[in-house]
Amino acid sequence: MTKRAKAPSASPFRNWRAVGLPAFAAALAPWQDKITQASLISEWFKPNVTIIASVVSPLCCFVIWSVGRSWGSSGARRLALAGLLVFLVTTAGCLTLMNTLDTVWFPGPDTMILVRVAWAVTYLTSCAAFGIAMVGGLLVLNGPDAAGSGP
Questions:
Q1: Contact, 143 vs 73, CB < 8 A?
Q2: Which pick of 18, 49, 91, 109 has the fewest CB atoms within 10 Å?
Q3: CA distance 134 to 128
Q4: Is the distance from CB of 147 to CB of 71 less than 8 angstroms?
């Protein structure tokens, strides 16, 4: 009697760690400098907003990692997709403001104050959403026991 071959797994991410991560890193490698050096916020805000973002992003990651361990994979998947969607929308908003404000759009002084506050909030939201999307994605890829059995 011959051995029956195993049925392939239904999960499209079954070999993600072995094949997908290196392929993803190799695909992004030529643009690594451009991606990491992209400016999403005006120099007018720096370093204050960048410092706040450096605190908000890891804090969001920590909270989502702590709370997300108890969610199922469907909850982590929804969280990762929502975080990715918010990240893409807010990043597009920051890039739009970066490229249009004071070049093709010249708001008045009162409007400029509101735009600058909204821009800073959008930037912080983008940083937080990126962390949430990354941690949510890791929870989905690693399964429900991704965070281990510790507290």
A1: yes
A2: 109
A3: 10
A4: no
Question: Residues 136-140: contacts with CB within 8 Å, 24+ apart?
Answer: 136/64, 136/68, 136/76, 136/77, 136/79, 136/80, 136/81, 136/82, 136/83, 137/80, 137/84, 139/65, 139/68, 139/69, 139/71, 139/73, 139/76, 139/79, 139/80, 140/73, 140/76, 140/77, 140/80
Structural domain containing residue 46: 39-142
Residue 115 lies in a domain: yes
**87 is a domain residue:** yes
Could you read off the pLDDT tens digit of each residue along the chain, which spans 151 residues? 566 655 555 565 566 556 666 666 777 777 767 766 767 777 777 778 888 888 898 999 999 988 887 888 888 899 999 999 999 999 999 999 989 988 899 999 999 999 999 999 999 999 999 999 999 888 888 765 544 444 4
Is residue 22 situated within a structural domain?
A: no
Residue 97 in any domain: the answer is yes
Total count of domains within the chain: 1
